[in-house]
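Example 3.2
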Amino acid sequence: MWFDAWCASRAAAAGVPLHVHHHSWACLEDGGLAWYRRGAFARLRPHRHWVLCEAMRERLVSRHAVEPEAVGVLSNAALCPPVVCGGKPVRPPPGVPFTLGFFSNVVASKGIGAFLDVVERLQGAGRLVAARVAGPVDASIATFVHGRLAALRDARYVGALRGDADKRSFFAGVHRLLLPSRHVHEAEPLVVIEALAHGVPVIATDRGCLPTAWAHPRVVRLFAADAFVDAASVAIAASMDAPDDLAADAAAATAWHRARHDASRAQREAALAEITQAPPAD
């Protein structure tokens, strides 16, 4: 906080415009900036601000007294170009499980417990479901996670995954990505965008930018955190009962990602042009 305040002060003294990027949802909640407002934010407020979606923009303007014209939108979708997956088998053959994926920091706040509960619920109902968990596992819950995976059928941890090849392999092997996050900073998670880019529909909690920027009745299904296990289990069972729709779901995921990416790319080019323009001469 104090470093931000120092930067703002130095920039003001030198007449240098600042561009402030907001990627935490928690800081924009009511009261979320109370401590920040007392220090750095008071000095940052007059500068240019960038947020991830219109919902963040609305909060910054209406709740934290930033001028509307000072806030621009630049989605994370600009960072995730479309992926050519070529030949992905979106419909499991008879006897092959419907695979659910979790790819995030494996911590309690990201919803790993709820993910495993969904898998357990479906397997307990006789559904042929597998689970793949990826991402760095926090040491505080490693025993819990690996114990739960061992108690399920065809459920395993596949590693932290580094690089595009690992991600392609992971997404090629799952039919749905689940992100039951309760993380207070969750705004526009990159993993949701990456899943769609690979043609994988997403089921997630209704946090941050997802309800207004990414919700889609077919490929980005959102549920309240407290109802997630029940609602996600029902939604997945319905998808498994309509296997002829799975290819269309994958195509819709790719199309939805491409539409959002193209719009975000235009935002990015406009933002770069603004940020890199020379300041007016004295």
